[in-house]
């Protein structure tokens, strides 16, 4: 596996996670020895490559990858880590490290120039990547879980499903393959008793499931997935992320994510559940929920 991406986007964290999974890892070797590093097809190997590598040329990396893929004993893939420019700028500011492609000058100067230059150099690799991982809104623990779920060397083949609950104020999850909007269901936020609870609590579950629209929706959603999931497997898809969103990401989406995970596990699917907003500090999550709920209340009815 070749791992590359923008500086500050998480390439080193991906390599460390792969090393913990049993991969032999090498970071930034000279490009002319890439094929020599892969001595056999038995040992899982992760090789980090980026613009700091000696003699870096995106075309040479792609050529080496093509040669590896031509070998019958090798299953080679390219993973690309990226993040939004504003996020990368913040990360470099927090660590007070110079971007590797930043021109000379005071520490932290012209970091944006380095980011732009690197993005230009790596653009062919981003376009050719088998997997692109955007870490802009991905905390390190979630990044590790994603890598473990996708690239663990052992385990049965098949479709790995991640079910992700989220709140719309922080935006759609970039890794989502399917997105379902739960905001049509009654909102527990307006009940002072239920507001501090989450979709994991029985009171919230009973409140949402009592909505007349819940069961018809549930029947249709699970029926749709019964059709889609086997087809994804037949097409060779290995990973699927189902995202469920609501106003604050703490009530309706969490409930449906938990219930859907239990349903799919009972059907024999491999499922992981991630609650994006529950990982936030409670105060921040509550503020976002309240702000969005206020906007919904003020919105004109159609």
Automatic annotation (TrEMBL):
<dbReference type="InterPro" id="IPR053930">
    <property type="entry name" value="RapZ-like_N"/>
</dbReference>
<dbReference type="Pfam" id="PF03668">
    <property type="entry name" value="RapZ-like_N"/>
</dbReference>
<dbReference type="Pfam" id="PF22740">
    <property type="entry name" value="PapZ_C"/>
</dbReference>
<keyword id="KW-0067">ATP-binding</keyword>
<feature type="domain" description="RapZ-like N-terminal">
    <location>
        <begin position="1"/>
        <end position="152"/>
    </location>
</feature>
<dbReference type="InterPro" id="IPR053931">
    <property type="entry name" value="RapZ_C"/>
</dbReference>
<keyword id="KW-0547">Nucleotide-binding</keyword>
<feature type="binding site">
    <location>
        <begin position="50"/>
        <end position="53"/>
    </location>
    <ligand>
        <name>GTP</name>
    </ligand>
</feature>
<dbReference type="InterPro" id="IPR027417">
    <property type="entry name" value="P-loop_NTPase"/>
</dbReference>
<protein>
    <submittedName>
        <fullName>RNase adapter RapZ</fullName>
    </submittedName>
</protein>
<keyword id="KW-0342">GTP-binding</keyword>
<dbReference type="GO" id="GO:0005524">
    <property type="term" value="F:ATP binding"/>
</dbReference>
<dbReference type="InterPro" id="IPR005337">
    <property type="entry name" value="RapZ-like"/>
</dbReference>
<feature type="domain" description="RapZ C-terminal">
    <location>
        <begin position="160"/>
        <end position="278"/>
    </location>
</feature>
<feature type="binding site">
    <location>
        <begin position="5"/>
        <end position="12"/>
    </location>
    <ligand>
        <name>ATP</name>
    </ligand>
</feature>
<dbReference type="GO" id="GO:0005525">
    <property type="term" value="F:GTP binding"/>
</dbReference>
């Amino acid at each position: 596996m070749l791992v590359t991406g923008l500086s500050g986007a998480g390439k080193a964290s991906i390599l460390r996670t792969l090393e913990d999974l049993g991969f032999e890892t090498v970071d930034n070797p000279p490009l002319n020895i890439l094929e020599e590093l892969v001595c056999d097809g038995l040992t899982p190997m992760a090789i980090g490559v980026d613009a700091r590598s000696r003699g870096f040329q995106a075309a040479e990396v792609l050529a080496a990858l093509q040669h590896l893929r031509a070998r019958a004993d090798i299953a080679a893939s390219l993973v690309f880590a990226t993040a939004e420019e504003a996020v990368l700028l913040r990360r470099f500011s927090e660590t007070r490290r110079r971007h590797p492609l930043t021109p000379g000058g005071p520490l932290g100067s012209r970091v944006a120039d380095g980011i732009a230059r690197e993005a230009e150099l790596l653009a062919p690799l981003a376009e050719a990547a088998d997997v692109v991982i955007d870490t802009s809104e991905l905390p390190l623990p979630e990044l590790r879980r994603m890598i473990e779920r996708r690239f663990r060397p052992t385990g049965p083949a098949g479709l790995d499903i991640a079910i992700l609950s989220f709140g719309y104020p922080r935006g759609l999850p970039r890794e989502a393959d399917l997105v379902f909007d739960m905001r049509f269901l009654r909102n527990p936020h307006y009940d002072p008793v239920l507001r501090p609870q989450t979709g994991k609590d029985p009171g919230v579950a009973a409140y949402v499931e009592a909505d007349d629209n819940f069961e018809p929706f549930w029947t249709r959603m699970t029926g749709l997935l019964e059709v889609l999931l086997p087809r994804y497997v037949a097409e060779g898809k290995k990973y699927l992320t189902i995202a469920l969103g609501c106003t604050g990401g703490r009530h309706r989406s969490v409930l449906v994510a938990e219930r859907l995970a239990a349903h799919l596990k009972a059907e024999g699917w491999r499922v992981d559940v991630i609650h994006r907003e529950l990982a936030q500090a409670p105060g921040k999550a509550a503020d976002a929920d309240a702000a969005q709920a206020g906007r919904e209340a003020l919105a004109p009815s159609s």
